[in-house]
Amino acid sequence: MADAVNSQTLFDGDSQAVMKFNNVSDGTGETAVLKVDVSALKANYAGKECVGVNIRRIEASVNGMSVNILWDATTDVSAFIVSPGMCTFNFDTTAILGNNAGAGKTGDIMFSTIGASSGDTYSITLQMIKIYAA
Q: What distance in Å separates the CA atoms of residue 5 and residue 35, rounded to the nearest whole number?
């Protein structure tokens, strides 16, 4: 049996995207699972394809495990680790989380769970600013 997961796109506009991710773990957890596929996001008004996102805000409710939010690349780079509890991280007031992955950077976001046990859960909403090719 695998973790029960659900992903929803709540908003996909010209400049922003909002997505929500839920997981109920069976104890196996997730390892570098694709959550935000930037190529699947809508193009902007000028027809340019989305090539990446910056994370503007994270709202999370995590029970029992932690979740590592990763920038996809040849060697994935941790963007942020969400620990157990209910939290909101608003990066507008500090510095937006930009993709600092190096070689092989795709612009996508993946999740890995840390210490997942059967019955652990997460619900994470990402508010993102879309980036387009020049």
A: 10
55-106 pLDDT tens trace: 999 999 999 999 999 999 999 999 999 999 999 999 987 778 888 888 999 9
Task: Please name which of 46, 65, 57, 42 lies closest in space to residue 114, comparing C-alpha atoms.
Answer: 65
Report the distance separating Cα 112 and Cα 11, nearest Å: 23
CB-side exposure of 19: number of CA atoms within 13 Å? 23
